[in-house]
Amino acid sequence: MKFILILFFTLNAIAYDAFIKPDTLYKTIQDENLILLDASDYASYNQSHISGAIHVDISKFLKSKYARLSGNFSQKVENEMQKLGINETSHIVIYSRTNKDDYLNATYLASIFLQHGFENVSILDGGYMAWIFKYNDVVTSKALKPIAKGNFKAIYNAIVLVDDEYLNQNLEIVSAKSVKEIFFDDLTLKSELELKKLFENELILSKETKVAIYRDTSLAAYANWFILYKMFDLKNMKIYKTTTE
Predict the structure, then answer these.
(1) What CA–CA distances, in Å, run from 21 to 94, 151, 152, 172, 185?
(2) pTM over cut 0.90
């Protein structure tokens, strides 16, 4: 089985939607279509969060504590999205605290939404700390609940999780970059130039190539999948379902 590293540098029209800066969020903070989700633990959310943010319990989007990945179509995901007030016209922005585990939860959640047919989802670059660095007066400790149940209807997406049998018949497995390689210490995304430098000697895969991304932990694989799918438009990207998930 051939192991290769992925890079794909030409940004497409939706590239800038994958991660947004605090300034961009601030300009749309009053938008009625904005659904702002805090993916941190509830204690952190309860202490302080961005004004207008709703806490999201990641466990609601996991199959179980032993099988974290929910990449295949699930009616449960649609139900939970509706409970968060998500409509067909919503723009979801997810953020977390500046630590690796919270950030992986955020990219995991964004990926699950994508896999259920909701494309208009972004992650706040740098998370909560990046926000309060500029807008520390737009925070609160008051918990917020969705105003009403949303109307989002999930659309079945092609299978994302693949196992050994599927892999051997259809795909090649690729080794993903670590979180530390893609993000700075404050978990802001590295620039396009820096990403190009990071991957300059590696093979560039075409959008038509069918590959599965692998990492030793499931959430790290999801973080890579989100970037490759959302930023670089690799729509055929899969996630190799390992035994360590």
Answers:
(1) 12, 28, 26, 34, 16
(2) no
